[in-house]
Amino acid sequence: MKLNDKFFLIENKQSRNRIVLAPMDSQVAIDGFVNDIHIQHYGARAYGGVGTIIVEGSAVTSEGRYREKSLGIWKDEHIEGLKRLVNIAHSGGSVIGIQLFHGGAKSQLKEQTKSINNYFDFLNQRNLKILDLKEFYEICDEFVKAANRAKQAGFDFVEVHIGDGVLLSNLLIEELNTIITSKDIEKRIEPIVYILKSIKENIDIRVGVRISVNDENPDGIKVTDYKQIISLIEPYISYLHVSGGDILSKRKSTIGAENKVKLHRLNYSAQLIDYTKLPIITCGNYDSKDEVKQALEKSISAVAIGRALIANANFVMTNLLEPNEIDESYHWNNNPWYKHQDFYK
Known about the structure:
The longest helix has 21 residues, at 133-153. The strands form three sheets. An eight-stranded parallel beta barrel has the order 3-4-5-8-9-10-11-12, surrounded by six helices. A two-stranded antiparallel ribbon has the order 1-2. Strands 6-7 form a two-stranded parallel ribbon. The chain has one domain: Aldolase class I (TIM Barrel). It has eleven helices and twelve strands. By secondary structure, it is α/β, with parallel strands linked by helices. Pfam families: Oxidored_FMN.
């Protein structure tokens, strides 16, 4: 595999390279709406050469926002602004999807939040409502409605977040799942399968999932658990996106200092290849061509980059690609932020 390979992360939509803009919160939305800061942020990375953009976690309900200024996709009024994001990304040459998100107990808001446990007691949970199974499935339906809004906005795919301790990820862990109390992981993740199947069958938009692949904790998720999990969700998804975080994130034995963050999920990501033929995205503070090559040499399909692309919107073209690899699929020379001037006149 080569960094500048044109490949299909999702079916029937070719990405111009194997670099993905990681979904990172910008925290500038008002009532969930896209504004000009979002347009500039995502547009600059599209024109800067990113192959695939995953828009930050966008709340499927108001109380599902991570924080007050998180992006939203919980009402039809959001669609028009999201269309602007799609249009600027496509004009810059990127494939673009949006992450569907509900923070659960990790949502830090003044309004009431909702989850299925109060495990994350290091956070402010004074307004936390514990859901029953019926109420939980009502939120599952909001994921499906949000996927429909994403399709109306023109996104190429959606990504359902089931990692990092957010609401859906709690289903995977027996200790956290209070609505389906079973030792059988197939039973515990039935609502996740319901969401993915409903989107695939009713919305006709491609779906990926963001996962936490190993908790480094005996009570948590293990990479080997994904052999079964993938077999259950694979019929409904197009790719897997390995998160840098874990689910039981208040425990000391998580990713912190002992594991560092440099390429820290690469070996786990490579292990998933034994369980699926789906494309796999990995992450882990990649900031050089050599580091990206390490992932591709392990047959990882794509590398998600965050901090380096925050620092430099043109990182793909200035630091990863050679000049002869920048072909007509890159639009730097008609970049709306670039105005050519003839200084000889």
